[in-house]
Amino acid sequence: MSYIMVDIESDGPIPGDYSMISFGAVLVDDHLDKTFYGKLKPISDKWIPEALAVSGFSREETLTFEEPHIVMQNFADWIKEHSKGRQPVFISDNNGFDWMFICWYFHHFIQKNPFGHSSQNLGSLYKGVVKDMFQNFKHLRVTKHTHNPVDDAKGNAEALLTIKKEFELKISLK
């Protein structure tokens, strides 16, 4: 089965009322060279300037981005092309937030989610591996966390590969 690390940027706290502005994904394997980057036109007139600022884009720039249904279909096609085995696994640094947007956008715009109905949380995995709920995996990233979602997904994938190696995590990365 394939693990796909995802990171999103948004202009607010929830999908529907606010918009996912961009997202990045990387197929977790030894190369980390299969990536996807999507920039999506806002779906709502509501936006929080401080939330949008994290993405590095202005509201005017986001209005020129691609229609969400096109981006989500392109992402579904990318997932199908790059994943092997049974259903791909969605994993992220903060799956409560990232999953919420990706799942909502998939169902809203293309009526299906290639990841199914579940996701995995990298932070929780690390806490379990080290048996300490106060620990954080972020020191295991190699790629700097820039809020470019591809960079951030890649850094998180690097951390997962380090956890796999250093803690002999049983995980199949196909």
From TrEMBL:
The 3'-5' exoribonuclease Rv2179c-like domain, residue ranges: 3-163
InterPro entries registered for this protein in UniProt: RNaseH-like_sf (IPR012337), RNaseH_sf (IPR036397), Rv2179c-like (IPR033390)
Pfam families noted in UniProt: Rv2179c-like
Stated name of the protein: 3'-5' exoribonuclease
